[in-house]
Amino acid sequence: MGRFKHQIRLQIPRPLAAGWLIPLKTVRARVNANDVLIQPDALQDAQNDFNWSGVEIKQALLKLNDKNYYDNKLKNHYYDAKPHESYPAENTYIDYYRAHNLLDGESVYTHFYIREHKTTVIINSFKELYNVPED
Amino acid sequence: MSRKTKCEYCDGSVTKVKGILPFKSKALGAVTVPEIEQHKCSKCGNTVISLDEADKVTEFIRIKEQEIINNLPACDFISLNQAAERLGITKQAFSKHPRIKRGFIYSIIIDNKKYFYKRSVEAFKETKDGRVSLSYSSIINQIDVSVKADQINDPTP
After folding, report:
1. Chain B window 45-104: which residues touch A at a Cβ cutoff of 8 Å?
2. Strand pairing of A36-38 and A121-128?
């Protein structure tokens, strides 16, 4: 079954994050099923910024929430979604998250996607989020 | 035998291969990690790995780092109390610090006691990251600097 049927359009108005989002329920299920791939650059950043391995990356993904980042920059994580430029013919979107104090006091910026008609979560980026918002 | 899929960035095909993975570590610099299963594009070389393989990579890096740390001169290490004092925190706060627990300050264990690398403690104090470079040239430079400093302080010829 394709990912399309799982997609929901968010009703909340947001400055940047207008578009599609893979429900985190789906992402968590794939993470728990160990169906996750990561790009070496993203792993390098996770290792160099946090000293994290795959185990901690998994834990961090499981702790993400899909509430709009702009509603509460300290507590909410979902930041944006953009169509994947490499797959123009597909309904594949990259979801962006900015999560403050996500795990072990670390703030994480990450983006990942699941290709249409596929199940694997592919993490493109996973690095430290430096700018702490004021509110 | 592996299943072919289309690459994310080009029209090449992605296959599962086992081989070396180039990795840039903060402490070690450029490292090649052997025997890593990768999903690699035959055309552009774009690679992704599973989180299990990611664990293997980080474990390899950790072991290599520890090998070098274990060979550093013992006089460059300080006790937990001294390290906590240098950071201006209590030893309890030092032990519980999540970053220190995660290895942001290099340490060795001698007789069941943990000792911390001085240079790493100083770097942690400055930047909250004590993982200084463990590359050969960096360590040699450091030794050279400390020897020269000792010679300057020592009045005897």
Report:
1. 46-55, 57-59, 61, 98-99, 102-104
2. parallel
Q: What is the pLDDT of residue A4?
A: 44
Give CA–CA dist A28/A43, Å, rounded: 19
- Decide if B90 contacts B84 (C-beta within 8 A): yes
Q: Based on C-alpha coordinates, what's the Rg of chain B?
A: 21
DSSP string, B46-80: -EEEEHHHHHHHHHHHHHHHHHHHHTS-GGGEEEH
Q: Using the beta-carbon criterion (under 8 Å), do A54 and B55 form an inter-chain contact?
A: yes
- ipTM associated with this complex: 0.82
Q: How confident is the model over A19-68, as pLDDT tens digits?
A: 557 899 999 999 999 999 999 999 999 999 999 999 999 999 999 999 99
Residue B145 has pLDDT above 70, yes or no: no
CB nearest to B25's CB, from A34, A47, A104: A47
Please give the model's pTM, rounded to 2 decimal places: 0.83
pLDDT of B67 above 80: yes
Cβ atoms of A97 and A10 closer than 8 Å:
no
Which chain B residues touch A84 with a CB distance below 8 Å?
A: 8
Distance separating alpha carbons of residues B81 and A86, to the nearest angstrom: 54
Comparing B144 with B6, the larger pLDDT belongs to B6
Please state the separation of Cα A55 from the chain's center in Å.
16
Sheet holding B113-117, edge to edge: B77-79, B113-117, B107-110
**How far is residue A123 from each of residues A35, A109, B19, measured CA to CA in Å?**
11, 11, 21
Task: Look at A54 and B54 and tell me if their CB atoms are within 8 Å.
Answer: yes
Tens of pLDDT along A119-133?
899 999 999 998 777
- Contact criterion met (CB below 8 Å) for A16 and A80: yes
Q: Which residue matches tokens 């968010």?
A: A10
